Each structure stands twice: as C-alpha cells, then as structure tokens.
Write a sequence for this structure.
C-alpha cells in the first residue's frame, strides 16, 4: 500500500496540472475498462472541474455493456493528439503500443504527460507515471483506492461503475483474485448504492435464446486434448449469423468450457471481421496453467487465468477438426 500512496500523490498532482486529457481504453472494452474510464472522467469533471477530455474506445461496446454504461460518451477516434496534454491509459497499458501511440507521440512537438493505471502484468510504459498493482482484482479497485486517498465522496452512479468492474473481473466473486480487499471494497460500494443484481443480470444471467443456440454449437464441437488438457471449440461468422446472434454472445463460452471435467484450460476460437480469429483462454488456480504465457506467444496478453489474442486468418473444418488458415 505504501507503493500506491506514493503513486497516488504523484497522480493527484499530475491531474491538477493537466487541462485536456485523453482517456484511452483497450479494444473490445470490458466492464472494468469502461467502469474505470467513466468513474475517472467523473472525478476529473466533478472534483477537478476539468471537462475538456475525451474517452477513446476504438470499439463500441455491445448491448449488455451499453445497459450499464453511457457508451454514447465514447469516441471511436481522435483527430489530433496535440489537442491533449495528457494520455491516460486505463486497464491495459499495452494499448500504448498496440494502438501505436508510441509512434504517434514521436511526431509531436510537445510530449504529453502519460499516465498508466492497470492491474495487468507486463503493461509498463517507459517514461510514464505507472500505477500498476497486479495484486488488485481490477483496475476499478485501484481507482477506488485513489478516490479513497483523495477523499472523493462519489455518488451511487460512480459506485455502480466501480462495482461492475470488480464484479466482472472476479467472475462474480468466483475467481481466485477475489481478495478480502476486493470484497471489502465491494461492500463499501454496495453501501453507496451500487447493485450486484444490476450487473449480474446485464452480463451473466440475461441470455437470449439466440445466445444459447450459439453456445450449443460451441459445446457440440468441444473437444479435449488429452496431452495438454485443453478444452477447445470454434465459432465461425456463419454460426453467429445463422443463430441471429452477435460476436458479443461469444463471451462466456470459454468460461463454460473451462468447467469441463479433466480440462486444465479452455480455448474458444472465433472468427471476427478483417480476416481475424480471436482466441479466448481461461483456467483456474488449482489447474496450475498460466494462460497468459500462451497468449504472449501470440502477442496477446491478460491474466494468468484469463487471457486472449488475435491472429490473422479464418477457420476451416476438415473432417472433425478445425484449422486456421
């Protein structure tokens, strides 16, 4: 905690010195990224009086997340980085390189302040104010601690943003990153007016028949590699279209596959736009498989129990097997 206090002092001062920050979240944002961005932007606006900011998300969230967050406030592009005196990365510092901000700022006459708030490993940004705590359950947990440090008395709306991030990143308090601190913070957020039922209904239980049909296809194709213990399945763009589903409905399949008996980790491969295949990996602490090591081999990232990556190609079935070509 002493480490965070020192970082929070620097963050507090840095935020007071900037006027037009650009908040950046990772592609295909989850509830932790969105919750962190909207909670943090509220602090900038309501506490510091800084309203000249932009929240950048290159991907627009799907319907489920849109029911929890004001996604209409997101911007999918930025015309001129020079308009911003600070770049604030929330919940995936590696986006600094993936979205090529390292190259973009090299062309600027004046270098912006760079701030990185994250709980993922391997996301350090050189020459930035890095506030990274890999023991935190979520980036929203770190932001809550910062609010606590600066004594920001936020309202129920912000409490919901923060709780949504913690709840989803802990898998509904089921994953091993559900620490005593995460539960204590969640309790404090509930007392401020946040609702577990609201986020649980939006993201975990309120599934359409089309979603379940898509999941059924994935489960029918599921196989276990006896040598590695990998439970794997595949979803094509045609599958999504035939079920009347969306790519958002693919989320959750890797979690289901990971519950298969004798599996050590799960992998779901799904076709996406621009000739890409997305891979989602899941495991559990007792299985002792660090899926982030697998993801990093393909230039992906994430946690040791929940990671992912993208590769070019499309899925093709050969007999009972599927390949990426």
């Amino acid at each position: 905690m002493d480490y965070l206090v020192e970082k929070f002092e620097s963050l507090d001062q840095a935020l007071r010195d900037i006027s037009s920050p650009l908040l950046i979240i990772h592609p295909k944002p989850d509830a932790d990224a969105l919750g962190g961005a909207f909670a943090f932007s509220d602090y900038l606006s309501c506490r510091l009086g800084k309203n000249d900011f932009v929240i950048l998300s290159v991907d627009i969230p799907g319907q489920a997340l849109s029911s929890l967050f004001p996604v209409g406030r997101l911007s999918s592009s930025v015309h001129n980085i020079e308009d911003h005196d600070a770049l604030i990365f929330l919940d995936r510092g590696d986006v600094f390189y993936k979205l090529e901000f390292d190259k973009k700022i090299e062309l600027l006459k004046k270098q912006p302040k760079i701030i990185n708030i994250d709980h993922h490993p391997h996301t350090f940004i050189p020459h930035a104010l890095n506030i990274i705590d890999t023991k935190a359950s979520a980036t929203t947990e770190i932001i809550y601690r910062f609010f606590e440090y600066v004594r920001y008395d936020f309202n129920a709306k912000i409490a919901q943003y923060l709780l949504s991030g913690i709840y989803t990143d802990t898998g509904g308090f089921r994953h091993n990153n559900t620490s005593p601190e995460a539960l204590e913070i969640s309790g404090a957020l509930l007392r401020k007016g946040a609702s577990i039922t609201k986020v649980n209904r939006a993201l975990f239980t309120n599934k359409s028949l089309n979603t379940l049909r898509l999941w059924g296809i994935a489960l029918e194709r599921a196989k276990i590699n006896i040598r590695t213990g990998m439970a794997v399945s595949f979803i094509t763009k045609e599958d999504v279209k035939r079920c009347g589903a969306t790519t958002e409905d693919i989320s959750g399949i890797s979690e289901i596959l990971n519950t298969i008996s004798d599996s050590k980790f799960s992998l779901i491969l799904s076709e996406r736009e621009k000739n890409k295949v997305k891979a989602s990996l899941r495991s559990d602490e007792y299985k002792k498989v660090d899926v982030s090591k697998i993801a990093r081999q393909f230039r992906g990232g994430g946690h040791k129990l929940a990671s992912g990556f993208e590769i070019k190609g499309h899925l093709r079935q050969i007999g009972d097997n599927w390949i990426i070509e």
